[in-house]
């Protein structure tokens, strides 16, 4: 073993540049793989820990306006699959009435509601993931605003409507498993019951949230259908727990996805470079390998002689990459920890990156072993004479009529003879280019104004959503009248949201949310088919079409969906 290590050390000194470049690729691969998996592990652990402490609902139905409390109670009693339920009162306050450091929250696109702590589930947590308790005169601020505006404990939030003004001291920053994500359009502030009663006399509008916890195996789709069939209050959106989890995961998982994708590209490049370097090294040492085989060296020992170099290189890169990933992962995990906490499982933060690095190292070592074993199959005579190299490279004949394009002819001949080596180089350049272009393209895609069309929303500069109120038609008419008189508005369209009932591929009834209006004003691009042109047609998202088992035939929805 000492002899092998000495030979490896001398080889490293002789090929310093190649070894250094290869080591950089391997370290970067291990570093990004461990870092990406650390972010992913922290995200999964943190989201699980938040949900475990906050106990988010499985289904939420928002509602504005009056409702029959007895009817809601009867609905809950008639469903054995409901484990627990509660009605949450939320006081919606206009952003213009919420003031921090002399400025209102009008620039924020969030809808802000003020609530008291829940008693059964869906708890608002402090930064220790404990159930937050806020005394009178104080307030708990969502972590979203703590990061966006720099709000911290001890600051003052002012509520002002006309002559009424109320100052509340920030007691804690709260985490909200239901509305935590930046993708959620609503945020909840936590105040005391006495403050909520006082503030509601001067400002705000009540909104109700009917929340349900289901027993194991119960379907939220069935509960949603039953609630609509029973005429439950539904002047608002309905959200399932899976959607809430998806929003949280998407918010934090995009960074992990990008890092892991870049890591996989670097792994491919590293393996290709290793393949090229090993082939070139063994090609130069055919005579030495032939001599060792001639004097009786076992093939296994010769393979170990060349493989131990790459084994040492891979293991060293794995250790360095894993250690570098710790501060790197902590940096990218800071936002996740701020929003969700430290998590409930330490092994996911440390064990998952370690497993990823070990699998990466095993993959590279096995690749080296395979390449070396294939290169040592030649006989002693072939190796000593160099015939194996000639046979593999082949030859090409020059044209009898002479060389009209000398450089091009010789270059094409060399490519033909050494096509394997050149394919490796070509793939290295391809994946390197992709590695550079991937983050740039993702950034440009997200920042492109047309990105919103992927969510089924036509490309526009401003979208105004009117909340569910008793005077909805009057509000709509006032807004349209104002916008039509604005000379800076080139075009506008009005869309109406509602629910329709449909049957999926299994014959089960369910409700889906639809939007209707003039689609030609802000058109969408369709994967298949075209925009609906009359009341007998409709367009479905790809996810809804797959879930409902609907297909497009002759540019019409084949299965009829009735309202």
UniProtKB/TrEMBL annotation:
Domain ABC3 transporter permease C-terminal: 261-368
Keyword flag Kinase: no
Domain of life: Bacteria
TM region(s), chain numbering: 252-278, 310-338, 350-368, 423-442
PANTHER family xrefs: BLL1001 PROTEIN, MEMBRANE COMPONENT OF PREDICTED ABC SUPERFAMILY METABOLITE UPTAKE TRANSPORTER
This protein's UniProt keywords: Cell membrane, Membrane, Transmembrane, Transmembrane helix
Protein's UniProt keywords contain Membrane: yes
Pfam families xrefs: FtsX
Protein name: FtsX-like permease family protein
Record membrane topology: Multi-pass membrane protein
Subcellular location: Cell membrane
